[in-house]
Design goal:
Number of strands: 27
Number of domains: 1
Shape: globular
CATH architecture: 6 Propeller
Radius of gyration: 20 Å
Strand content: over 45%
Strand order of the largest sheet: 1-27-26-25-24-23-22
């Protein structure tokens, strides 16, 4: 099965390739994660295989391998279950891959939840049933190690202050200084009465799990001082070469939560809401990725050129792309937002719709060789749970400002 990138010359939505599709027997695929391995021109697409759409019915993590051909098409392998990515009597969830370029090791983080315990029950009882787990591969995902349960070594006694936690879902990132970052969030329990959390005091907060020694040991950073849930992170390099770690997190306040770290994820300062980034009432996971700011922007429209001098002399060497459903009330109309001034809270352009209709979780990847973006997303015609689809598009596709509306069609 191949997929040719959409040239989008007519403003149509990019071509989709269905990688995981809901089966007649009820088996559902959810929670996409995508990584592009530049050295081998390989995409790895991950998802949860569930016996029903319910979180409690997650069974296995699955993966498909995509080989990028010279003509830009992607040849996909059949789906395979990751048999080592599990713990006995637990269900694996939230795939979160990151590639360590020095040791050429691919890490796949995920959580394992005891039995069919729901997140809601963990929050109400204050009794965590989640474990932090990881498998690794030295051959680009062809073979995987046995699972490692990192809960005790990484989280330690802090776990007793968490009702539950998770990683991602989506991709991690390796910073220019070599540090590996896994986005995560935890439901912190500030007060207890008779061992139970005091109602309405437990809410999620984003944080990072990081490694300074190429994945040999891992540590947890400090949580954001604001309500923030499922998140992804991206490195921003400013015009003086300094690194800033950006966090974009799910929220229930009608807008996404953003924060910056000046110490590579140990601590995030001044979290705030992003007024340009729409969030549904109960929130939805979203994806963000950083990429080198272009020296020249092809086919940029007059309106964009009038936005300021950032196109010619940007304040950063990095731009951001963010992907999320754009409808204010429902998970539908998947949009891509561009930020050319990512160190400023109001730098987001209006979204470009790349899928009109039901849309859910997503994950972005960037191919620097072809200067192209790819994504996995939950989508469908009647429900976002119908399939997980892959598509590719260019920066020019995103920047083409429609004069009549914000859509790509």
């Amino acid at each position: 099965m191949g997929n040719s990138p959409s040239k989008n010359v007519t403003g149509e939505e990019p071509v989709k390739t269905t990688l995981f599709e809901k089966e007649p027997n009820g088996i559902t695929y959810r929670i996409p994660a995508l990584i592009y391995l530049r050295h081998s021109h390989t995409f790895l697409a991950f998802a949860e295989k569930r016996s029903s759409p319910s979180d409690c019915d997650a069974k296995n993590l699955v993966m498909r391998r995509g080989t990028l051909r010279d003509d830009g098409s992607v040849q996909w392998s059949l789906s395979q279950e990751l048999l080592t990515a599990c713990l006995p009597h637990h269900r694996p969830m939230n795939p979160c891959p990151v590639y360590e370029k020095h040791s050429k090791t691919l890490f796949l983080f995920f959580i394992c939840i005891r039995g069919n315990t729901s997140e809601k029950k963990q929050i109400s009882t204050g009794k965590n049933k989640a474990r932090l787990c990881c498998v690794s591969s030295s051959d680009d995902g062809q073979n995987w190690s046995q699972v490692k349960d990192l809960t005790e070594s990484v989280i330690g006694e802090t776990i007793h202050k968490w009702a539950t936690f998770a990683v991602g879902p989506g991709h991690g990132v390796q910073l220019e200084n070599g540090r590996l970052i896994i986005p995560a969030y935890a439901y912190y329990v500030p007060y207890r009465c008779c061992s139970f959390p005091i109602p309405c005091t437990v809410y999620p907060r984003a944080l990072s799990v990081f490694s300074e020694d190429f994945g040999q040991t891992w540590h947890i950073g400090k949580m954001l001082r604001k309500k923030s849930c499922e998140c992804e992170m991206a490195e921003i390099i400013d015009h003086e070469g300094r690194s800033h770690l950006y966090c974009n997190a799910r929220n229930t306040g009608r807008h996404r939560c953003e924060a910056l770290s000046e110490n590579s994820g140990v601590y995030f300062d001044k979290p705030h809401l992003a007024p340009e980034l729409v969030e549904q009432r109960y929130g939805c996971q979203g994806s963000v990725i950083g990429f080198p700011a272009p020296e020249f922007v092809p086919n940029d429209d007059a309106e964009s050129k009038a936005c300021g001098t950032s196109l010619l002399s940007p304040d950063t060497q990095t731009w951001l792309l963010f992907m999320h459903p754009t409808d204010k009330s429902k998970r539908r109309d998947m949009g891509v937002y561009l930020n050319r001034s990512p160190l400023h809270s109001s730098g987001w352009d209006k979204p470009r719709i790349i899928h009109s209709g039901p849309s859910g979780y997503s994950d972005l990847a960037y191919n620097g060789d072809k200067d192209q973006f790819s994504c996995l997303m939950e989508c469908g015609k009647e429900s976002e749970l119908e399939q997980i689809a892959f598509m590719s598009f260019t920066l020019n596709d995103v920047m083409q400002a429609g004069k009549k509306d914000k859509k790509l069609h």
